[in-house]
Amino acid sequence: MGAALIELAGIERVFQLGDSEVHALRRLDLTIAAGEYVAVMGPSGSGKSTLLNLLGLLDRPNAGTYQLAGRDVTTLSAEEQARVRSERIGFVFQSFHLVPRLTAAENVALPMILAGIAPAQRAERVAQTLRDYGLENRADHRPNQLSGGQRQRVAIARATIMQPAVILADEPTGNLDRATGEEVMRLLETLNGRGVTLIVVTHDGALGARARRQLLMEDGALQHDSAPPEATTSTCVLPT
């Protein structure tokens, strides 16, 4: 197993709903090594999406620490978190989250534009990425001109254009038929085979069983972890 990429210690996330508090995550400790393939499972309201949002730096915990490649990212400013998110984390969502008015090529280029990468370099990398995902003939199509599978491939291309260390996939096959969903999962698993850490949130037991490690969430706590107890404690260092 590789070095520890993600280390959560004592993570708490509490939401205030009227007069009551909802403990979405409770004293969560979790280590995920670089290159792992992990499925996060559990019923609705178990904390899966809250965990994914925290891992993706879209939300902050009320207590605890989150280290990404040895760097405590819970203490970073919003701007610093955005930079880490842009460079290190790729997102794949059930509903694709493509920008409707942009073409496939423009959607894929978006993270590079936000990162300030020069237009010539962007164009070259986007063209190569579209070829890699079999989308070169769809470069100028907008999302409403693409099939569900093509839209998800565009979303995965966008998620990987910055060569992230980790891909967070939230029900990535939820809006796809079985054959197309299988194609999308093979694509994500190929990326994992090349060393990208893959974390999939799913309600689908069959989909979760594909992962080499399953985490079962319930009431904001980790109820079961299929990883062996001798998980790595070594750490890799995130470039600044």
UniProtKB/TrEMBL annotation:
<dbReference type="GO" id="GO:0005524">
    <property type="term" value="F:ATP binding"/>
</dbReference>
<keyword id="KW-0547">Nucleotide-binding</keyword>
<keyword id="KW-0472">Membrane</keyword>
<dbReference type="Pfam" id="PF00005">
    <property type="entry name" value="ABC_tran"/>
</dbReference>
<dbReference type="InterPro" id="IPR003439">
    <property type="entry name" value="ABC_transporter-like_ATP-bd"/>
</dbReference>
<keyword id="KW-0046">Antibiotic resistance</keyword>
<feature type="domain" description="ABC transporter">
    <location>
        <begin position="6"/>
        <end position="239"/>
    </location>
</feature>
<dbReference type="InterPro" id="IPR003593">
    <property type="entry name" value="AAA+_ATPase"/>
</dbReference>
<dbReference type="GO" id="GO:0005886">
    <property type="term" value="C:plasma membrane"/>
</dbReference>
<dbReference type="GO" id="GO:0016887">
    <property type="term" value="F:ATP hydrolysis activity"/>
</dbReference>
<dbReference type="GO" id="GO:0046677">
    <property type="term" value="P:response to antibiotic"/>
</dbReference>
<comment type="similarity">
    <text>Belongs to the ABC transporter superfamily. Macrolide exporter (TC 3.A.1.122) family.</text>
</comment>
<protein>
    <submittedName>
        <fullName>ABC transporter ATP-binding protein YtrE</fullName>
    </submittedName>
</protein>
<keyword id="KW-1133">Transmembrane helix</keyword>
<keyword id="KW-0813">Transport</keyword>
<keyword id="KW-0812">Transmembrane</keyword>
<dbReference type="GO" id="GO:0022857">
    <property type="term" value="F:transmembrane transporter activity"/>
</dbReference>
<dbReference type="InterPro" id="IPR017911">
    <property type="entry name" value="MacB-like_ATP-bd"/>
</dbReference>
<keyword id="KW-0067">ATP-binding</keyword>
<dbReference type="InterPro" id="IPR017871">
    <property type="entry name" value="ABC_transporter-like_CS"/>
</dbReference>
<dbReference type="GO" id="GO:0098796">
    <property type="term" value="C:membrane protein complex"/>
</dbReference>
<dbReference type="InterPro" id="IPR015854">
    <property type="entry name" value="ABC_transpr_LolD-like"/>
</dbReference>
<keyword id="KW-1003">Cell membrane</keyword>
<feature type="compositionally biased region" description="Polar residues">
    <location>
        <begin position="231"/>
        <end position="240"/>
    </location>
</feature>
<feature type="region of interest" description="Disordered">
    <location>
        <begin position="221"/>
        <end position="240"/>
    </location>
</feature>
<dbReference type="InterPro" id="IPR027417">
    <property type="entry name" value="P-loop_NTPase"/>
</dbReference>
